[in-house]
Amino acid sequence: MGSLLQVNNLKTGFHTEDGMQTVITGIDFEVNHGEIVGLVGESGSGKSVTSLSIMQLLHDTPGEIIDGEIIYKGEDLLKLSEKKMRQYRGNELSMIFQEPMTSLNPVMKIGKQIIETISLHLNMSGQKAKQHAVSMLESVGIPRAKDIMNEYPHQLSGGMRQRVMIAMQISCNPSLLIADEPTTALDVTIQAQILDLLKDIQEKTNMGILMITHDLGVVAEICDRVIVMYAGRIVEQATVKEIFNNPKHPYTKGLIDSIPKIGAGLDELYSIPGAVPSPKNMPKGCKFAPRCEHVMDICNLEEPALAMENGRSSRCWLTQEQSQQEGVVGHGQ
Amino acid sequence: MGNNVLIDIKDVKKHFPLSKSWFEEKQYVKAVDGISFSINQGETFGLVGESGCGKSTTGRLINGLIKSDTGEVIFNGKDLASLSEKQWKAYRKKMQMIFQDPYASLSPRMKVKDILMEPLTIHFPRMSKQEKIETVKNLLDKCGISEFHLNKYPHEFSGGQRQRISIARALILQPELIIADEAVSALDVSIQSQILNLMKNLQKEFNLTYLFISHDLSVVEHISDRVGVMYLGNLIEVASKQSIFKDPKHPYTKSLLASIPQPDPSVKRERISLKGEIPSPSNPPTGCKFHTRCPLAMDVCKEKVPIMQKLNENQQVACHLY
Fold first, then answer.
1. B277 in A contact zone (CB under 8 Å)
2. Domain-embedded: residue B196
3. To the nearest whole angstrom, how far is the Cα of A83 from the nearest Cα of chain B?
4. Chain A CB contacts of B216 below 8 Å
5. For residue B80, what is the domain's CATH number?
6. How crowded is the C-beta side of B125, counted as CA atoms within 13 Å?
7. pLDDT tens-digit profile of A104-147?
8. Quick check: is B160 in a domain?
9. Which of A93, A246, B157, B247 lies 20 to 30 Å from A275 when distance is taken between CA atoms?
């Protein structure tokens, strides 16, 4: 394993009526070869903006990358020209979106859409490109792949469309796949099929996957490592086992406890009070402080740093004080 | 919790015609193809299934938003199909609906207080304005919205708060039955748990009966007393929550349960994930509609439609295996 993608101090903002509003406030993380990294958080936490920043697809939004580096295979993507970046997109890094109906072109046959990518990046043409497209469709488990090449997206079901999306995105054998909520719009039985498929592809090709999702069940199932975002920041980062067995940040713990678990027989679910703060009304100290049940004086005054400890990190005064004072402050419930 | 049946659905069907030219043979989408179940007073009945299985149509058939083709919907001993439009008004008051998308189901041009007062104006024309405002304030408070927000518009609220307002709107007429159609599906988990707790508390306080329609089995398990599983317009299993989640009988229920990703990395999901996808409801398979995807399909399944049979006090299943 080696570092495939390294994001350093990425800051992204949105132009609003009240000036520049920073929505990603300096995040750092990496994705290694052959690793599935989960990026989780609630709506508005900045996970999709992070993925669009990596792909540099913010042109259609009021967003702009303010600062930082996105190092892909040793090269800073932010320094590349748009022409060069276009060669990378779809070829080196590619992206699957949530809604397969809106991300496929409705008036173009499926075969043509896949061949377009292939001929652009792989220097294949005619019969060869067509053969490659059919074999890609077959590899993602699409029956009658040859016929499907001549059909339009609306003729397929949601699950089939998402398979077509995946076939298209892996057709040029990218090293990094960004999957933005790829199963959220699908039924649970189809979701299971797509997750199995992604896992199989990842094992076969050793690509790195950045999996953006709000569903912790999906994370537990497929990811190796997890990054939890809140209000445009990373608040915790750890392996999937550590996150679920021993979450350090109260937000992570709250998220996990909020999910109804089958067979738990609880009368009342745990719930985090309040809601995510808006970028206009960010609390001064820790951004989670107003919703946190362990809040201390310092939390309202100063924002904790993302402190690294034993290979995992957490942005919380509780764990940081704890490590300084050797467990004087309890992490009680 | 009494065992009085509040609503009894008997062999209800709804087929939507597909628009075709006059000369061709008429085709129908068999959205609901003969289902029967009942819900007791004070109970939560969860209705689950994949998209297109007819669960939302069932909800709408019950509260009269769609008229059924055949069958009976008996509410408190009264067959709703026999009611005239005028008589319906009294029954609408008794069953209210909460919809999935709190962004689309509240009028963007009405203030919160007007949204909540409108049902009172329609059903209690003699109520004074002061009384109405008091009722609205009281109820909003119970739903976790302070009276300070009365004069705001829906766009000023977050998704979770909007869903609280939708719940208050559904409760304002003191209904007996609430039909919640994917009421928490659009919400983030932390907000989802707040709303689920609220719904449970309100149920206790007002002795409400819920029909809880959802595709999310973990949510259904949390909130329901009994659960019905639908597939292509038919109920295939109805059982108490305990029976269905611990000992599912129908192969479809089993594979649905096995497909849920568990929020626990030490649990490995068995890969009996279902092959293929739900067939089109306009041209469903013969016999048992599930036989095309069923891992245990036998010859009889292709020919004969299985009938719902009672396995024990708590469990009914429509499958040739039993």
1. yes
2. yes
3. 38
4. 188
5. 3.40.50.300
6. 1
7. 999 999 999 999 999 989 888 889 999 999 999 988 888 888 99
8. no
9. A246
